[in-house]
């Protein structure tokens, strides 16, 4: 069996090839600066909308990587409340959603605070409010008290992908990690985010939730890199897209003797793709802001506002009067009146598809 990285005498003195990383690292920092500059040139409301969308995606996608699917509207509502962003109609939010949001918001809004054992335990408790992961009771708000293996496959045919640092060493390893994270200021925080993510995953200090906490730690350090609690791109969304490569590179590097160049290259590329991808998200946010700017004096009722925001956010499927009635909680007659009114105002138009059902789309603006 090949040795794990933590079994080499050089652990945890990581090495990497600066030359291989330099160009990519420069590109990432340049793109971050560009996005930041773009966002500083837009209005307060647009900026808030972009941040809210990004944070929502980050929470939803980070949980999706672990196979847990959170309700988008609940997450969005919970974040809006915490960031003090006014939203039409707050929704009831599940306890487990509140917990994940608490962790991500604490990591990014309080990025200058040291990351302590107590703070990590608080994050862990927030992720598992019932003391269970699924049906299983787990150690919560404390380091694991048993061995940790990452396995897949059916019972009796399990494949072991990774065996983490032995239980007796977890506390000492975490002390070393936290001392480095809080006191070593020799590295650029973006590079530090990549190393911290990997180092934490290797220790795997908790019974469950290690991936989500590793990504929150990376988010905290990226916020330090940008000297800002605002976020306009989602690393977790991109990791979900590149999940296969994420696990492949982790599996490869967990057996190396300390040279983590391949991991750092992957992380920087993923971050670069996340920043590039955000330009699409921001385009939608800008479109939405422009739409409401054009219609700031147009009389629009609450149902119409709700439905238009859904369409501007990328409505799923076709917009029909029956869907309008269901979402806006009104009769079909009222829905038709709302739609007819927006057609008269040249905001909605009928889609030219013919057939029995009538669909509506936004008019070009």
Output the CATH homologous superfamily of the largest domain.
Fido-like domain
Distance between the terminal alpha carbons, to the nearest Å? 62 Å
Tally of DSSP β-strands = 6
Largest sheet: 2 strands, antiparallel
Uncertain parts: none
Strand order of the largest sheet: 1-2
- Can you tell me the number of structural domains? 2
Number of helices: 14
Strand content: 5-15%
- What gross morphology would you assign? elongated
Mean pLDDT score, rounded? 92
Roughly how many Å is the radius of gyration?
23 Å
Q: Assign the structural class, choosing from mainly alpha, mainly beta, alpha/beta, alpha+beta, or little secondary structure.
A: mainly alpha
Quickly name the level 1 CATH class of the largest domain: Mainly Alpha
Order of helices and strands: HHHHHEEEEHHHHHHHHHEE
The CATH topology label of the largest domain is Fic-like fold
Specify the helix fraction band. Answer: 55-70%
């Amino acid at each position: 069996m090949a040795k794990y990285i933590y079994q080499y005498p050089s652990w945890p003195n990581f090495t990497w090839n600066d030359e291989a990383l330099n160009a990519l690292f420069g590109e990432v920092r340049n793109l971050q600066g560009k996005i930041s500059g773009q966002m500083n040139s837009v209005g307060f409301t647009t900026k808030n909308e972009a941040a809210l969308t990004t944070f929502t995606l980050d929470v939803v996608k980070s949980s999706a990587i672990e196979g847990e699917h959170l309700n988008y509207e609940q997450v969005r509502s919970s974040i809006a409340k915490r960031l003090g962003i006014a939203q039409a109609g707050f929704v009831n939010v599940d306890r487990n959603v509140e917990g994940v949001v608490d962790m991500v918001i604490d990591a990014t809004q309080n990025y200058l605070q040291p990351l302590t054992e107590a703070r990590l335990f608080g994050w862990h408790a927030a992720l598992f409010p019932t003391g269970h992961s699924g049906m299983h009771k787990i150690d919560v708000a404390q380091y694991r008290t048993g061995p940790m293996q990452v396995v897949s496959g059916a019972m009796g045919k399990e494949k072991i992908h990774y065996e983490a640092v032995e239980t007796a060493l977890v506390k000492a390893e975490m002390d070393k990690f936290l001392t480095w994270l809080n006191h070593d200021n020799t590295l650029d925080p973006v590079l530090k985010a990549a190393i911290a993510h990997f180092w934490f995953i290797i220790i795997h200090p908790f019974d469950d939730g290690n991936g989500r906490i590793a990504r929150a730690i990376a988010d905290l350090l990226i916020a330090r890199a940008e000297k800002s609690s605002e976020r306009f791109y989602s690393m977790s969304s991109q990791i979900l897209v590149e999940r296969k490569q994420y696990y492949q590179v982790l599996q490869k590097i967990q057996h190396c003797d300390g040279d983590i160049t391949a991991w750092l290259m992957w992380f920087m590329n993923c971050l670069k793709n996340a920043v590039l991808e955000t330009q699409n998200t921001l385009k939608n946010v800008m479109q939405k802001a422009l739409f409401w700017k054009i219609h700031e004096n147009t009389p629009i009722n609450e149902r119409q506002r709700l439905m238009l925001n859904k369409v501007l956010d990328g409505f799923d499927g076709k917009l029909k009067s029956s869907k309008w009635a269901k979402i806006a909680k009104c009769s079909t007659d009222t829905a038709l009146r709302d739609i007819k009114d927006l057609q008269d105002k040249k905001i909605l138009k009928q889609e030219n598809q013919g057939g029995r059902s009538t669909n509506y789309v936004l008019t070009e603006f």
